[in-house]
Specification:
Order of helices and strands: EEEEEEEEEEEEEEEEE
Largest sheet: 6 strands, antiparallel
Number of domains: 3
Helix content: under 10%
Radius of gyration: 21 Å
CATH topology of the largest domain: SH3 type barrels
CATH class of the largest domain: Mainly Beta
Distance between the termini: 48 Å
Number of strands: 17
Length: 187
């Protein structure tokens, strides 16, 4: 159990028969009436974001969440299969729980979030930036662009993103997996 004074971004709660993580919160002390905490909560099972107001000092039930390193093995009909890096056990996670799957390649290290009491997988996240090879992109034509021109490029995982005009085929680039954008060339 925790009170609203213990709120911090990322804290996991058992709330309304679901698991929620605190995305944002704000303590409010109005001129009249008691203080309260306005919060945004994201469901770890559905991904839905709700807003809720707690009275100051209210007790809430916290949930224990663990993150564990895993390695991506392969995709099958029921989802993606990963291997625990410590004990080599395999776990299959449904596609809807894997964020950034279009940038995942075999052997990729990921972090999987588990509910500690039930051992149920809640989400799977790639590292913020991954290096990938450009397998196809159109050649740039000099003088045919204005500033900050972009072109599409197909990556080794099959994903298509926009890259600057100077990126060529077979180059390695770093991709931001959170929003699927080009970040930089790999040096």
């Amino acid at each position: 159990m925790a009170s609203t004074a213990d709120f911090k971004t990322g804290l996991c709660l058992n709330f309304k028969n679901d698991l929620f993580t605190i995305v944002d919160f704000q303590h409010v002390k109005p001129g009249k009436g008691p203080a309260f905490v306005r919060s945004k909560l994201k469901s770890l099972t559905t991904g839905r974001v709700i807003e809720n107001t707690f009275t100051a000092g209210e007790k809430v039930d916290t949930a224990r969440i663990e993150t564990r390193p895993h390695q991506y093995l392969f995709k099958e009909e029921s989802g993606y299969t990963f291997m625990d890096s410590e004990n080599f056990e395999q776990v299959t996670i449904p596609s809807k729980l894997v964020s950034g799957f279009e940038f995942m390649k075999e052997g990729q290290e990921v972090t999987i979030l588990f509910h500690a009491e039930t051992e149920k997988a809640l989400s799977c996240e790639l590292p913020p930036f991954v290096p990938l090879q450009v397998t196809y992109t159109e050649p740039a034509v000099k003088g045919n662009t204005s500033s900050n021109a972009m072109k599409s490029a197909t990556l080794e995982t099959g994903a298509v993103i926009n890259v600057p005009m100077f990126i060529e085929q077979d180059e390695w680039i770093r991709v931001d997996t959170r929003d699927g954008t080009y970040y930089e060339r790999v040096k």
